[in-house]
Amino acid sequence: MKVPVLFGWIMIFVVVVSYKRRKADRTRENKERDFWERENAANATRKQDISNLNYVDFTGVSLPFARFSDDFLHQCEEQILKLKDEKILNLTGITNTDLKLKYGAANLTFLTQCDQNFTLLARTLNSWGQRLKELSHTEEAIQVLTFAVSIESDIKNTYQLLAELFLQTGQQEKLKDLKSSASNLNSLMKEPILAMLDKMENSD
Known about the structure:
This protein is mostly helical. The chain has 2 domains: 1-44; 50-203, Serine Threonine Protein Phosphatase 5, Tetratricopeptide repeat (Alpha Horseshoe). The chain is built from 8 helices and no strands. It has helices spanning 2-43, 71-83, 96-103, 108-134, 138-150, 156-168, 174-183, 190-203. Helix 1 (2-43) packs parallel to helix 3 (96-103), helix 4 packs parallel to helix 6 (156-168) and helix 5 crosses helix 6 (156-168).
């Protein structure tokens, strides 16, 4: 009697596995179909006017250029000065398909370059701020890192460095503003950054 019972359980297992596999296959096929439908629609989207997008604007921004004698600082400053003359857009969290659907396929190359410029800007500001902090130029480090946060950089280290500086200078109340800025990020780094800031605020 044990053999038929065991056989029955094996058959049930096979049926369940087969059902789940077919379901997974259908889900994958549906996702692929949806992707290609969106991609085809995106490629057919006409070129849109992108002159009024939210480009990074350095107008009125004060940054600590040429104040200290340090080779690494000079490298960061030179990179920022080069980027000031470029078009820069924060497109974090937006796929190429979404960009083409919204702005037209013909604009994708330009928008991609703008996004790459933003990535370079965010990384350079982070490096600049970190080096200033290492050299104990606290006010200038806060200045640089605050600008990085204002353009919605999603580099976790930028928020950590700035939070540390706020705590060191007795400005703990500014952690709330920092958390508010982080909560507006359209990035996978949003939650890790918020969790880190919560921990820093509560451990102080």
